[in-house]
Amino acid sequence: xxxxxxxxxxxxxxxxxxxxxxxxxxxxxxxxxxxxxxxxxxxxxxxxxxxxxxxxxxxxxxxxxxxxxxxxxxxxxxxxxxxxxxxxxxxxxxxxxxxxxxxxxxxxxxxxxxxxxxxxxxxxxxxxxxxxxxxxxxxxxxxxxxxxxxxxxxxxxxxxxxxxxxxxxxxxxxxxxxxxxxxxxxxxxxxxxxxxxxxxxxxxxxxxxxxxxxxxxxxxxxxxxxxxxxxxxxxxxxxxxxxxxxxxxxxxxxxxxxxxxxxxxxxxxxxxxxxxxxxxxxxxxxxxxxxxxxxxxxxxxxxxxxxxxxxxxxxxxxxxxxxxxxxxxxxxxxxxxxxxxxxxxxxxxxxxxxxxxxxxxxxxxxxxxxxxxxxxxxxxxxxxxxxxxxxxxxxxxxxxxxxxxxxxxxxxxxxxxxxxxxxxxxxxxxxxxxxxxxxxxxxxxxx
Length: 447
Description:
Layout (H helix, E strand, L loop, with lengths): L3 H16 L1 H20 L9 H11 L3 H8 L3 H4 L8 H16 L1 H8 L2 H32 L1 E2 L2 E2 L6 H28 L4 H12 L1 H14 L4 H23 L1 E7 L2 E4 L2 E4 L2 E7 L6 H18 L3 H4 L2 H8 L5 H22 L2 H10 L11 H36 L7 H39 L1
Antiparallel strand pairs: 1-2, 3-6, 4-5
Helix pairs in contact: 2-9, 2-10, 6-7, 6-8, 7-8, 8-9, 9-10, 10-19, 12-19, 13-16, 16-18, 17-18
C-alpha cells in the first residue's frame, strides 16, 4: 500500500519535473551525448580484418582485453575509434590524485581552490594524451602480431597503419574526454562515469539473451536461471545498501558573541562512507592479475609446460591462487586509496581552525586519531564487502560456466553511477522548487 503522503510527494515531484525546463534540457543533452558515444563504438579503425580479429578476441578475451572491452561497451572487440574508451583519462586522473597526496607542489595546488583544480585538470588532460598515445602504439603493434587462421588481423601492416591507428585511437579518447566534460557541465551526472555506465549497460541485453539461449538448449536448467536472477537482485540490494552506508560523526560548534548577537552553537555531522575507495580497488586488482595472463596468452608459455605454465593455469578465473591474490589486492588497494583521499590530520586541523569539535574528544591530535580509528574499521568492513561482491561472480563463472559477469566491478559501477545520477536529479528538482517559492514570495511582497 502507498500512503497518501507518498502519493502527494510523488505528484509534486512529477509536477516539478514537468516544469523544470533546465533539468529536462540537461537530460536530453546527456541522452544525445551518450547516443553519439554509442554510434562511435561501431565506427571501425581503418585497415582491420574484422573476421580475423573476432577469432583472435575469442581466444584472448578472458584476460585484461575482456575487462577493458566490458568498460568500452564492445568497442575494443570491434576495434573501433573508441576502443581505448576513457580508460587513459581515468588512469591519468588517478595518478594526478595520488600525486596530490605525495608531491608537495601538487598538494599546494589542491589547496589553492578553483584555480588549483583547473590546473590539476589540465595536467590530467595532458597525461591522458600521453597514455592514449602509448596504449594505442602498443595496440597497433599488437594487432600486427596477432595471427588468426586466415592470417594477420591487419590487412596491410606497416608504418602507415601504426601512425593512422595511433592518431585515430588517441583522437577518439580525447573526444570522449571532451564529451564527458560537456556532460558534466551541461548535462546531468558525471560524464566520464556515465560513458562507462553506458558501455556496460549496452552489453546487458546480449548477456541476458545468451543466458536464456542456454536455458532453451538445455545447457542450463530453468531452476538455475531463476536462481541467478534471484542472486542478481540480492547482490544489487547488498551493493545499494553498502554504497549508501555511512558513519555520521557528530561535530559541535561553540557559541560566540559578535556585538549583541550570539552565533554558532550548532551541531552538524561528518559523514564517512563505508566504501570510501569506490570501484578503484577491483579495477586495480583486476588489471594487475589479468595483465600477466594476457601476456601469456600471446606467447607460447602454456605450450612449453613447466612451472610458468602451471602458474598461468592457477592464475585463471576461479582458481584458488587467483581468488586469494584477488582478495588480497582488493583489500590492499581499499586501504591505500582511502588513505590517499581522506587525511584524518588535515580534517581534524580544519575542524579545530573553525572551532568545531567531536563531543568527548579533544581537538587536534586526539581527534585525528579518533578519525583514523573509525575510518580503519569502516575500511576493513568495506574491503570485506568488495571482496565478497567481486569473488562471487568469479566462483560462479568457474563452477557453473555462467556466460556473463554477475557482479564485481561492472555491478559496482552501474549501481554507483545510478545512485549518483538520481541524487543529482533530485537536487535539481529541490533547487527548482525553492526558486519557485522565492519567486512567489517576492511577488506577494510587491503586491
